[in-house]
Amino acid sequence: MEDQKKRVYDALDRLKIKYEVVEHEPVHTMEDMDRLGLPEKGTLCKNLFLRDSKGKRHFLVTCDEKKQVDLKSLGKQLGGGNLSFASEERLEKYLGLKQGSVSPFGLMNDADHAVEFFIDKDLSRCKSLGIHPLENTATVFLSFKDLDKFLWDLDVDVIKVKL
After folding, report:
1. What is the pLDDT of residue 21?
2. Ordered DSSP codes for 28-63
3. Where's the YbaK/aminoacyl-tRNA synthetase-associated domain (predicted)?
4. Contacts of residue 2, Cβ cutoff 8 Å, sequence gap at least 6
5. Half-sphere exposure of residue 157, counting CA atoms within 13 Å on the CB side?
6. Which of 10, 31, 62, 132 is the most buried if burial means most Cβ atoms within 10 Å?
7. Is 146 helix (H, G, I), strand (E, B) or coil?
């Protein structure tokens, strides 16, 4: 088991969070995920790592993979102005992640709390959420409540938004 994934599993175990892991081939897009046939296990999440136009604020936004996200209206809602996808360099710097592995679990690498986390309110009604454990070779399924517990333990503010 890779160190990155093990860090996530160890943290979940320490918090006594119930989760299920599905190992799979590396995936880079939501289309790749869909081909794996995982959706019956829960709601697959897409995670957008964004920045404001000045590059001063960084945002991680998690929502249902099927949601269309309008960056212009999201920027207004988050008070971030014009948003765009952050570079791979910024992703590595702030969350310690590679493209294709973006995940709320990456916030465990954000010791300075430089990234603001937003999650779609609709996910709170889902039975189970599927997110990568810092690598795109597995998907962890856990409840919204348990993801919130994980992030609370990291002292991350979980801000719900309507997308």
Report:
1. 94
2. -SHHHHHHTT-GGGSEEEEEEEEEETTS--EEEEEE
3. 24-150
4. 135, 137
5. 8
6. 132
7. helix
| The two three-digit tokens of residue 26, written as one number | 């590396």
pLDDT tens-digit series, residues 32-70 = 777 777 667 789 899 999 999 999 999 999 999 999 999
Write down the pLDDT at residue 36.
75
With contact defined as beta carbons under 8 Å apart, do 140 and 133 qualify? yes
Assign domain 4-25+40-157 to a CATH class. Answer: alpha beta
For 98-145, what is each residue's pLDDT tens digit?
Answer: 888 999 999 999 999 999 999 999 999 999 999 999 998 999 999 999
- Least Cα distance to 105 among 58, 66, 62 occurs for 62
What does the alpha-carbon distance between residue 118 and residue 78 come to, in Å, rounded to a whole number? 9
